[in-house]
Write a structure and sequence with these properties.
By secondary structure, the protein is of the alpha/beta class. The protein has two domains: about 1-130 and about 250-320, FAD/NAD(P)-binding domain (3-Layer(bba) Sandwich); about 135-245, FAD/NAD(P)-binding domain, CATH 3.50.50.60. Helices cover about 25% and strands about 25% of the residues. The protein contains eight helices and 17 strands. The chain has helices at about 10-20, 35-40, 50-55, 70-85, 165-175, 200-210, 255-260, 310-320; strands spanning about 1-5, 25-30, 90, 95-100, 105-110, 115-125, 130, 145, 160, 180-185, 215, 220-225, 225-230, 235-240, 245, 250, 285-290. The strands form four sheets. Strands 1, 2, 3, 4, 5, 6 and 17 form a seven-stranded mixed β-sheet that branches. Strands 8-15-9-10-11 form a five-stranded parallel β-sheet, covered by helices on one side. Strand 4 and strand 5 (about 105-110) form a beta hairpin. The longest helix is centred in the first third of the chain and has 14 residues, at about 70-85. It is elongated, with a radius of gyration of 22 Å.
């Protein structure tokens, strides 16, 4: 019987595991992919907006070559955290359901490999696994990507980047720098105002000089095998195209949360039901942690302002145990 089972092996899950270890609770982290799966799937050349100091957890220094760490340095850091704290992490194992045993006051947690028994559950599944779709004809074509790895496969190709927030601008610049023919489709009249301060002038200058073509106040209407139809202020425009990167953001896996029994209000924000102070959901002993707490408000929480979630939850668990 585990004191705590943690669903999700990202930075929040690791932080919660460390908090449990400090408190002497038996715990297990179950991750459907690799450890820190979201960071692993970030672009290979990505640099974090936050400083390494703001990302530190578990009293382990985050060493990086510059003030802002890279994806590679982050992967190394989280590996070191897991090793330092000897965290039990089962990767490539997905959680399939929860069933509460009302008699003995614990949960049976069914996974793709086995069933665990745990007194408490923390769900910290983030939102990077489910892209926000364009919902246009042709989006299911193989040439449409919702994640970016590296620019090499697209050298010399005509690429459309949809979106002008951090991800869209990063992808457009890297593709252009490596030799792709880049066009951007931007729903709003300008580049997103909160784009990283060292990226925004660069992308704006590349657009101004014509190195990167940009259509503002524009939506994608249809994606075809060799072209894309754009709905622009001047009417429909069809351009030649080899690949589309739809960098339109991501959202929590709401069907998974509902499958567990966590309530999702029918509002635009879709913030999963949980207590803001204790992070406990409508399910007794089941907690949310990390960016998933914000629902569709995906720019509200980040790694650096959810580092304490694990400690908050563990403290609540300990307080409850005292009163039993």
């Amino acid at each position: 019987m585990l004191d705590l089972l943690i669903i999700g092996g990202g930075p929040t899950g690791i932080s919660a595991g460390i908090a449990a270890t400090k408190a002497g609770l038996s715990s297990l982290i179950v991750e459907k992919g690799v450890m820190v799966n979201s960071i692993f799937n970030f672009p290979s050349n990505m640099t974090f907006f936050s400083t390494s100091k703001l990302l530190e957890i578990g009293e382990v220094p985050f060493i990086s070559h510059t003030d802002k760490p890279t994806r590679r340095e982050a992967l190394e850091y989280y590996r070191r955290l897991a090793e330092t704290w000897k965290l039990p992490i089962n990767t490539y194992e997905s959680v399939e359901g929860l069933e509460r045993d009302e008699t003995d006051d614990f949960y049976n947690v069914a996974t793709s490999k086995t069933t665990y028994q745990a007194k408490h559950i923390i769900v910290c599944t983030g939102f990077y696994d489910v892209p926000r779709l364009l919902n246009v004809p042709g989006e299911d074509l193989p040439k449409v990507k919702h994640y970016f790895d590296e620019a090499h496969p697209y050298i010399g190709k005509k690429v459309l980047v949809v979106g002008a927030a951090n991800s869209g601008c990063d992808v457009a610049l890297e593709l252009w720098q490596k030799g792709a023919d880049v066009t951007m489709a931007v729903r709003k009249p300008t580049i997103y105002e909160k784009v990283k301060y060292w990226i925004k002038p660069n992308i704006e200058n590349r657009i101004k000089e014509g190195s990167i073509k940009a259509h503002f106040n524009t939506n994608v209407k249809e994606i075809k095998a060799t072209s894309v139809v754009l709905d622009t202020p001047d009417g429909n425009v069809e351009i030649e195209n080899d690949f589309v990167f739809a960098m339109t953001g991501y959202k929590p896996n709401f069907p998974f949360l509902e499958k567990l029994g966590i309530e999702i209000p029918e509002t635009a924000e879709k913030i999963p039901t949980h207590h803001s102070d204790t992070l406990e959901t409508n399910l007794k002993g089941v907690y949310l942690a990390g960016v998933v707490c914000a629902g569709m408000l995906t720019s509200k929480f980040f790694i650096e302002n959810t580092r304490e979630h694990g400690e908050v939850i563990v403290e609540h668990i300990l307080q409850k145990e005292k009163h039993l």
